[in-house]
Specification:
The chain has five helices and seven strands; from the N terminus they run βαβαββαββαβα. The chain has 199 residues and is an alpha/beta fold. It is elongated and about 55 Å long.
């Protein structure tokens, strides 16, 4: 049995992340993808959890403004190292610097999801916090990992669904897909609230 969308309500993922696209596809729903084009710069003093929540909602609203009849999913992830936000490194040098700072530490990956429909006025969001303890890695191990995985588009440079799992000592969370980039348990809950019955 395949879930169906409400009449005249397409589903749009407001993200260009291939990780989120692959995760959402697990639900068996037809959906489109649209880039949200949102400035992801943290506000001065903004906590990582607040940043992730703000950006997830902003991304959903940005895409919903272009597709007002659609149900839009926005999501964002920020790595939280002692209250400091760590985003996507973008370059090898930044990834090295991130992993050197994170090694031997516990990092909280704050993954927010928002679901918005402008036509119905629906807007809701949720946040999954995933505590990750990293191994105390040497510089050579960090270099080998980065050369093999090149996780420059992943918050905190840790791609847990790939070789990045070897960086970790432990993961503590209640939504197993959250660390990859889209907390599907919370996403399903929000979609139900928006009128999509997945079962």
């Amino acid at each position: 049995m395949t879930a169906t969308l409400p009449p005249n309500r397409p589903l749009v993922l407001g993200s260009t992340s291939r990780y989120r696209r692959e995760l959402l596809a697990r639900l068996g729903l037809p959906f489109d993808v649209a880039g949200p084009e949102v400035d992801e710069t943290p506000a001065p003093g903004e906590a990582p959890a607040a940043l992730a929540a703000r950006l997830a909602l902003a991304k959903a609203h940005a895409v919903a403004a272009r597709f007002p009849e659609a149900i839009v999913i926005g999501s964002d992830q920020v790595a939280d190292l002692d209250g400091e936000p760590l985003g996507k490194p973008g370059t090898h040098a930044r990834a090295v610097a991130q992993l050197r700072r994170m090694r031997g530490q516990t990092v909280v990956f704050q993954t927010a999801v928002a679901v918005v429909c402008h036509a119905t006025g629906f807007a809701a969001q949720d946040l999954a916090a995933v505590r990750v303890r990293l191994r105390d890695l040497g510089d050579d191990a960090i270099e080998r990992y980065l050369r093999a995985e090149q996780p420059y588009d992943c918050a905190g440079s840790a791609k847990s669904e790939g070789l990045g799992i070897a960086l970790l000592d432990a993961i503590d969370n209640d939504d197993p897909t959250a660390l990859i980039g889209l907390p599907l348990i919370r996403t399903c809950r929000l979609l139900r609230q928006a009128g999509i019955d997945l079962l």
